[in-house]
Amino acid sequence: MRKLLVLALVGLVAQLIDGSLGMAYGLTSSTLLLVAGVAPAAASASVHLAEIGTTLAAGVAHWRFGNVDWRVVTRIALPGAVGAFAGATLLSSISTEAAAPWMAGILFTLGAYLLIRFARPLRTDRVGGRLRGRFLGPLGLVAGFVDATGGGGWGPVATPALLVSGRMEPRKVIGSVDTAEFVVAGAASIGFLIGLGSEGFLLPTVAALLIGGLIAAPLAAWLVRIVPAQLLGAAVGGVIVLTNARTLIRSAELDGPARPALYALLAAGWLAALVLAVRALRRTRRARAEAAAAPAAAPAIAVGVPAEASDAASVGEVPADLAATGTPTPR
Q: Model confidence at 222, in pLDDT bands (50, 70, 90)?
């Protein structure tokens, strides 16, 4: 019972993170399951089966709030399903000893990516145009394959790519990616069912993760207002990096002073990323404050004319001092 409560807490925390960042449910859950000693294929299979329920709830919520671009969903979900099925089949055929460092390496890389991404200011500007199928198709295929083989990765691969394109609103990027993940999680679960059989799913683990995720789904909307995504992304990235580094170091059989030195280096990198995230967050807030103050200050400094002159000109009157002396004619 204690273990199931811990797993429910894992699902709750993972969903809170995913609801705030639009990514990292699978990364967080799989990382913590690996730490608990669950086999890589079983961990990924259980997480994806639980994601069928959590992504369905998230997709319905995003649809009701108008955050879903169905054109993007259809063009990214189907290739994502193909990639996820292939990835699940591959991971099911690999032994636990070989899969552990492979999965830890993928999670470590994605965690490092989160550190780098959220240590910089987040791009929110947009340009016109539509995303083409020749971009969405390969993106979905790669993201789905990485997601199944790594136990997570759909959001960290798909969401940043769509944000960087600058052709979708951030809320629609997150909503569309979360909605498409329902199809991806279903395809991955089918692949694991074929490769591992029903015994490959840890049903108590799935139930605990699902319950925690469903409880956290409405709380995530509250959390995103309290905790800035910039800081949350950097913090989660560091946890994923350090946790999976433990498996990689053990697989490489590093002993002696190399092990603590490597941990210290990774911790220093995490601290540096957090500092940069704080600075980027402050710069972003400062820029927003200046942008909000600019329209209010503009009328008072209209092309160098005093405020009284600007107000008089707006109603068709000429100030007395300018009427008496006249104004020079520009050449």
A: low
